[in-house]
Design a protein that fits this description.
Oligomer: single chain
Helix content: 40-55%
Structural class: alpha+beta
Number of domains: 1
Shape: elongated
Strand order of the largest sheet: 1-2
Number of helices: 4
Order of helices and strands: HEHHEHEE
Largest sheet: 2 strands, parallel
Distance between the termini: 67 Å
């Protein structure tokens, strides 16, 4: 009977493999749709990255533990998806003429704001360890 550590490692590797296959499938479909937009005549397209999924309320509740921290596992997959999506957008820009396609990273600024709100003038309040409210101070 395997010890608990080897089972945990196996499950982690299996989940990583399955999620990477899923991310690849999503990116394939997304690339197909972006090329279809080009064929239909679209010449300016902005592609937004995904959000830090592990920092959304659902991710924090399910995988954030008792302190409801950002779930690193979900964020790792969001970053993997964003990296592959960014590469696909860059390659499309090179291969398709006159296609002004841009990748807009919304993950990084939002992740930084959630994890370190003070430099941007925000305060983070914890209510019942499950809800977070970011309040903006407005200078008059």
């Amino acid at each position: 009977m395997p010890n608990c550590r080897s089972v945990d490692i196996y499950i982690y590797i299996y989940i990583c493999f399955q999620c990477n296959l899923f991310i690849g499938d999503i990116n394939y479909i997304f690339n197909y749709n972006l090329k279809s937009l080009y064929e239909l005549g679209a010449r300016r397209v902005w592609v937004l990255s995904t959000l830090p999924l592990g920092c959304l309320p659902g991710g924090r509740t399910v995988a954030g533990g008792p302190l409801r921290i950002c779930a690193p596992f979900a964020n790792q997959f969001a970053q993997t998806f964003n990296g592959q999506l960014s590469s696909a957008v860059d390659s499309m820009r090179v291969t398709l003429p006159n296609y002004d396609i841009r990748f807009i990273d919304v993950y990084t600024p939002l992740f930084n704001l959630i994890n370190n709100p003070q430099p941007e003038g925000h305060f983070l309040y914890h209510i019942n360890l499950t809800v977070q409210i970011i309040l903006t101070l407005v200078n008059y």
